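Re: folding output
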Amino acid sequence: MNAVEFNVELSSGGWLHIPDEAAAQLPKDGLFKVIIMPALAADDSEWRSASYRQFLRDDAPEDAIYDSLA
């Protein structure tokens, strides 16, 4: 499965506009599965990052290699 990801704002009429760059990546016909995920608030991403750092704080020294993947 090849996902095409983009950010878009829902219009008051309930319409979503697919940006031209994203539309160009889609097949011209066929069935699609659409999943709508509301954007996270800015403070949510900050909280998530802080909780991840706290989680890694108690790692064994030999696990330090994985810290660069965050």
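--- second protein (sequence, then structure) ---
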Amino acid sequence: MKMPKILILLGLGLLSLGLILSFFPNSLYWFGRLPGDIRIEEDNHFIFFPITSLIIISIILSLLFNLFLRK
């Protein structure tokens, strides 16, 4: 795939994500709150490992890339 096509698809993806977050701000409330996500809150610091959320996002992106970028 050529670089201009990749940049256009990346731009469209970011634009759609921005529109979704603008019009539906609570649409990603689940990110970081799934079972398996690690949140450690103490007095002066906060540690956050969204393991399960990132696995789900990785699966979704893999399916989309395989669906749209297949030759």
